[in-house]
Amino acid sequence: MNRRRAWTAAILALLLPVPACHGDEGRDRAGVTLRMLVPANERPFWLPLAESFSRARPGVSLELEEGPVPTDLRESLTTSALLSGDGAFDLVYLDVTWTPKLAAAGWLRPLDDDFGEGKRAELLPQALAAGIYRGRLYRLPFRTDVGLLYYRADLLAAAGIAPPRTFAQLEETARRLQSPPDRWGFLWQGAQYEGLVCFFLEVLHGHGGFWIEPESLRVGLDRPEAEAALAFLVRARAPGGISPPGVAAYREEETRQLFQGGRAVLLRSWPYVWRLAQREGSAVAGRLGVLPVPTLSGAPGSGTLGGWGLAVARASRHPAEAVAFLRHATSLESQRLFCAPTGFAPARIDAYSDPALLAANPFLAELLPIHASATARPVVARYAQASDVLQRHLTAALAGLETTREALAAAARETRLVLGDSP
Ligand code: GLC
Question: Of the residues 24, 141, 203, 348, which has the maximum number of CB atoms within 10 A of its CB?
Answer without folding.
Answer: 203
